[in-house]
Design a protein that fits this description.
Helix content: over 70%
Structural class: mainly alpha
Order of helices and strands: HHHHHHHHHHHHHHHHHHHH
Largest sheet: none
Length: 423
């Protein structure tokens, strides 16, 4: 019963989408309202006021509120940059310097590099999504496809980076060194990224209708470069966005005729455009708080660990465990922390390498997080692009290749065990 709100959400969302014949027309927020209502009604032995308090505490989680601040500033920056012409100038420069067939793989490589540098998928999505949307319109590909390219590359770095919170959580829970986990992870993430890159090169070679903007002032690119460079050197994403906003205002005053009033209007429109995203984030977080309170996470852990047999089965169980918990929490770091101790016990019992277990925890949580339509990254990309968060799922090729590599690593037991020092 604790997990039934997720079933209610999926049944309503999928059922309504099938009924209208369009997965993008059904508001995700309405599906969450029904699920939350169900969760409140089915919470037993608790006063209604207390149930609402539990929901509110889940929604008011500091990590959730931090994400909302990012959403607000991201909306303001994206709208401001577009209004002064920064995005258009960046697109024109890319189309004038890169062969058309290299644009798609180039965006993927850029997303991989930035996310590896800053250790967060959120910052990468913020930096590259507006650029990807405008590029898509000029090279004749689906907006959702190019945003999915960005999201896939963003999770490459989230999975591998030494400063990623998922890496820190996974290595600490398994008591192994980050360098050991990184090397084990490379056997999975790098082949998946190379396969994805080959696919994007093939797609990029298909005939497309290229429209190259002319007469652009490339000085307007500076605010966008400020965001990418400051993100790449590891500055906090909130500071990155503030610097981008300040840079946009300065460049606009020096190089355009746009007034301060027009710029503030653009920022206000961008913030308002994030309203649905913020509502869905709060509803999802509150719902997950009720699910956890009612024992849903505890049930999942106990159910998945009942029948483990052999080292391969133990690894598969750990992969499934962190994946299911990630679906319930919509946060890959929290999912790793939740199942980390239990995974360590399973690893000790079946003599699994800590670095391999840490790699499985990190990789599988990132796979699930990247395809969740109610995950922070998909919601943020949807808010910045004006698309449905469900629209990206069918184009998530990198996570699909990651699933393949995780399965192969479990079946064929690579990387081979080595002696490693404790962290």
């Amino acid at each position: 019963m604790a997990l039934s709100p997720i079933v209610v959400f999926l049944l309503f969302y999928l059922g309504a989408s099938v009924a209208v014949g369009d997965f993008y027309k059904v508001p995700v927020s309405v599906a969450f309202i029904l699920a939350v209502t169900w969760a409140v009604l089915t919470t037993r032995r608790t006063k209604l006021s207390r149930r609402i308090e539990i929901f509110s505490q889940g929604a008011a989680n500091p990590n959730v509120l931090y994400m909302i601040w990012i959403f607000i500033l991201a909306g303001a920056f994206a709208s401001l940059a577009k209004s002064i012409g920064a995005i258009d100038a960046t697109v024109a420069l890319a189309l004038n310097t890169l062969p058309t067939q290299l644009i798609i793989p180039g965006i993927f490589i850029s997303a991989c590099f930035i996310s590896l540098s800053i250790g967060t998928s959120v910052g990468t999505v913020v930096a590259l999504t507006p650029f990807a949307i405008d590029i898509a319109g000029n090279i004749g590909v689906e907006d959702a496809f190019l945003v999915a390219v960005v999201i896939g590359g963003a999770f490459f770095g989230d999975n591998l980076s030494f400063i990623s919170d998922t890496t820190i959580a996974a290595t600490r829970s398994q008591e192994c060194r980050m360098s050991d986990k990184f090397r084990a992870n490379c056997y999975i993430a790098i082949p998946a990224a190379l396969l994805t890159l080959v696919l994007y090169i093939v797609i990029g070679n298909m005939p497309t209708s290229v429209s190259i903007p002319e007469g652009q002032n490339y000085v307007l690119i500076i605010p966008y470069l400020v965001v990418i460079v400051t993100a790449a050197i590891g500055i906090n994403v909130l500071i990155v966005l503030l610097l981008g906003i300040i840079g946009s205002i300065v460049i606009a005053l020096c190089c355009t005729s746009i007034s301060i009033v027009d710029m503030t209007t653009a920022m206000g429109d961008g913030i308002t455009g994030m309203g649905d995203l913020i509502v869905v984030t709060l509803l999802a977080s509150g719902l997950l708080g009720l699910i956890k309170h009612n024992g849903g996470i505890h049930f999942v852990i106990n159910w998945l660990t009942r029948h483990i047999s052999g080292a391969r089965g133990a690894q598969a169980c750990i992969a499934l465990l962190v994946s299911v918990v990630n679906v319930c929490t919509a946060n890959n770091t929290i999912a790793i922390i939740t199942v980390g101790e239990l995974s360590k016990r399973i690893a000790d019992k079946f003599h699994l390498q800590p670095r391999k277990v840490a790699s499985i925890l990190d990789t599988c949580s990132c796979i699930v997080q990247s395809i969740l339509p109610y995950g922070a990254q998909a919601l943020l990309a949807a808010g910045l692009s004006g698309l449905s968060p469900v629209s990206f799922v069918e184009y998530m090729y990198y996570p699909a290749f990651l699933v393949l590599m995780v399965a192969l690593s479990i079946i064929f037991r690579f990387p081979k065990p080595v002696k490693q020092a404790a962290k």
